[in-house]
Amino acid sequence: MRNIILMAFALCLLLTAPAKAADAEVAKGVHKIGVVDMQVVATESEPAKAAKKQMESKYSKERDELEKQGKALQKKAEALKDPKASEEKKLAFIRAKQDLDQKTRNFMRKVEQEELTLRQDMVKRVFSATYEVARAKGFDFVVDITAGGVLYADKSMDLTTDVLEEVNKQYKADQKEKKK
Fold it and tell me: Domain count of the chain?
């Protein structure tokens, strides 16, 4: 009985040695994976805040004027509910409404085009910063946690703060360069 136990133990040792060697080989192929919350970087970084401020200052007056015109048209619409309102006033209202609708569409198109340009610039900044952080910290892959698919990531894998800092650093460097 004792010999059987010793032989079983020896057999276990022999079988685990190759498994440990295989584990060591697998460990060499393991990749270091990081995650970044792109939504946080896209909303809390200095370039994102500057872009938001730029859009507000550039388009707020025009937006306010369109809203003012819309409210004025609403008042006119109320007056036109009176059955005594002339056809001429109704036609003038329709023309004014169509004009405002066209102005609003043009405004929205302008804003969307500029937002698209700013988003593309932000994406370039974030990718560049992510690359720099991942390379410096030895990560092989970096995944956007907001894109879905990541249900859990250890905090040691989270590079969001580092990427946010790198985006801000690159933005400041770009701003200094533009001032020269």
Answer: 2
- CA dihedral sign of residues 135, 136, 138, 142: negative
- All residue ranges of the chain with pLDDT < 50 are 6, 8-14, 17-19, 21-22, 24-26
Distances (CA, A) of 33 to 12, 123, 145, 172: 34, 20, 12, 28
Sign of CA dihedral 19, 25, 27, 31: negative
Please indicate, yes or no, whether residues 78 and 166 belong to a single structural domain of this protein: yes
Q: What is the pLDDT of residues 145-162, one digit of tens each?
A: 887 777 788 888 899 999
Count of C-beta atoms within a 10 Å radius of residue 143: 17
148 conformational bin, left if phi > 0, alpha if psi -120 to 50, beta if neither: left
Q: Are residues 44 and 97 in the same domain?
A: yes
Residue 35 main-chain phi, psi, to 5 deg: -130, 150
Domain containing 66 — which CATH number?
Answer: 3.30.910.20
Tens-digit pLDDT profile for residues 112-145? 999 999 989 998 999 999 999 999 999 998 998 8
Name the residue among 110, 116, 94, 96 with its Cα closest to residue 62: 110
Phi-psi region at 149: left, alpha or beta (left = phi > 0; alpha = psi -120 to 50): left
Read off the pTM. Answer: 0.67
Q: Residue 151: which domain range?
A: 31-179
